[in-house]
Amino acid sequence: MGRWNVRKRIDADTQNTHDGQALPRTLSWPHLIAMGVGAIVGTGILTLIGIGADKAGPAVLLSFLIAGFVCACAALAYAEMASMIPASGSAYTYSYVVMGEVFAWIIGWSLILEYSLVVSAVAVSWSGYAAPLLNGWAGVPMALMQAPHAGGIANLPALFVIAVVAALLIAGTRKSAGLTMILVAVKLSALGVFVWFALPHFDAANLEPFSPYGFARNMGADGVERGVMAAAAIIFSAFYGFDAIATAAEETRNPKRDLAIGIIGSMFACAAIYTVIALAALGATPFTRFANSPEPLALILREINQPGAARFLAVTAVITLPTVIMAFFYGQSRIFFVMARDGLLPHGLSKVSAGGKPIRITLFTVAIVGAISLFLPLDEIVALANAGSLVAFTAVAACMLIMRRRAPHAPRGFRTPLAWFIGPIAIAGCLYLLASLPQKTHLWFLFWNLAGIAVYLAYGRRHSLAGR
C-alpha cells in the first residue's frame, strides 16, 4: 500500500489496549438502543419539522421518508461493519481497515466536524428553552445566555449543559447510559402526549396543497432554497445518531451481536416515531402556522388550545435534550480517543485513568464544543454537521461493498440483506443529499477538509503508528 495510505489490520484496534489505553466493557444492547434513541429523537423532531415544513410544506412527510430511507440503508451498512470490526472509531476505523490511512483521516476529520457541531447545536437549542426560565426564576441576564449574533455576550447555559454531560461521562459510561435510558423514557412520554392531543384534530385539508414548492431544490423569491429534497437534506440530521453507537464497540460486552441490535433497533424505532409525529403535526394545523418556529410542537399544542400540554412538552425538552448531547459527546470523545491512540492526533490524549475513563480527551472535547456553543448561532451549524455525516455514511457503505468483494467469507455478526442494492442506494442517496445542501455549506466543508489535510501532512502522517 505504501506509506501514504497504509491499512490497519482488521483486529488492530482490539489489540491496541496496552499502556493505559483500554476501555472497560460495561454496555449491552438495551444501553445501546437507549443511546441511539436518545441521540436520534431530539432537536430533529422538536425543531426541524418546522424548518422542513417551511421548505417543503406538507410534503415534508416525503422529506422524512426519503431521509429516513437513506439513513436506514446506511444503518444496515453500519451494522455489518460494526459486527465485522468491533472496535471504537466508527466510520473512521472501518475506513482505516478497508481503504487506508488517508481516507480514514478524511472520514475522521468529517466525524469530528459532525459531532462537534451537533453537540454545540443541541446545547444552543437547550439554552433557547432554558434561558427564559433562568431569566424569570433567577434573574440571570439574557446577555449572558445569548451569543453575540443575538445581541448577547456569550451563551453560558450552553457551556453549562456541556460541562454537566462531560461530568456524567467521566463518572462512567454505564452510569451515564443508565441515566440516558430514564430520560429517553421521559422524552417518549412527552411525544406520546403530543400525539394524544394532536391526532383528534387531524384534518386532511391541512395537507393541501401537498407539495407547494416542488420536489427538486429550487431558489424561492425570498432567496430561501425550498423543495422536498432541500428539506430532506436538512431533516437528515433528525435521523442520524445511530452512528454514535458504533463508537461504543470497545465498551460493549458482546459487540458482534449487540452493535447490530442497537443500530438497527434504534433506527427503525425512531423512523416509526417520526412518521406518527409528523403526520399528527401536519394534520392538526396548517403548516404555515408553525413553519420555521423554534418550538413547532409546543406551538401546535397551543394552536389547538392545549397550553398545559405545550408547557409539559417544553419542560420535557429542557430535561431530556441532554440525552442527545450525551450520545454525540460520547461519540466525539471516542473518535478523538481512537485517532490519538493511532498517533494521528497527540498521543497523550488517548491516556485513560486508573478506572478506565478517557478523562483527558473528554476535557479536550469540552474545550472544542464549548467554544462553538458559546459564540456561534444554531442555524449556521446544522447544515455543516450534515455534510460531515453524509460523507461518513457514504464511506461506510463503500467499505461494506469493498469487504464483500475482498473478504466475502470473513466472519460477520450481521450481514446486510441485499447488500448490492442497499449499499449503492446508501451511497447515491447520501451524495444526492450532500449536493442538496446550501452552496455556502459546500464552501465551508471544503475549507474544513483543506485545513484537515494540512493538519494531517504537518502532524498525523509523521506520527502515525500504522505508518511506522
Automatic annotation (TrEMBL):
Q: Which domain of life is it from?
A: Bacteria
- Gene3D superfamilies linked to this entry: Amino acid/polyamine transporter I (1.20.1740.10)
Which residue spans adopt a coiled-coil conformation according to this UniProt entry? none
How does the protein's chain sit in the membrane according to the entry?
Multi-pass membrane protein
Q: Where are the transmembrane segments?
A: 32-53, 59-79, 91-112, 152-171, 178-199, 228-249, 261-288, 308-331, 359-376, 382-402, 414-435, 441-459
One cellular component term (GO) for this entry is: membrane
Q: Lineage, please?
A: Bacteria, Pseudomonadati, Pseudomonadota, Alphaproteobacteria, Caulobacterales
* Pfam family name, one: AA_permease_2
Location(s) in or outside the cell? Membrane
Gene Ontology MF annotations: amino acid transmembrane transporter activity
Q: Keywords on this record?
A: Membrane, Transmembrane, Transmembrane helix, Transport
User: Per its record, how is this protein called by name?
Assistant: APA family basic amino acid/polyamine antiporter
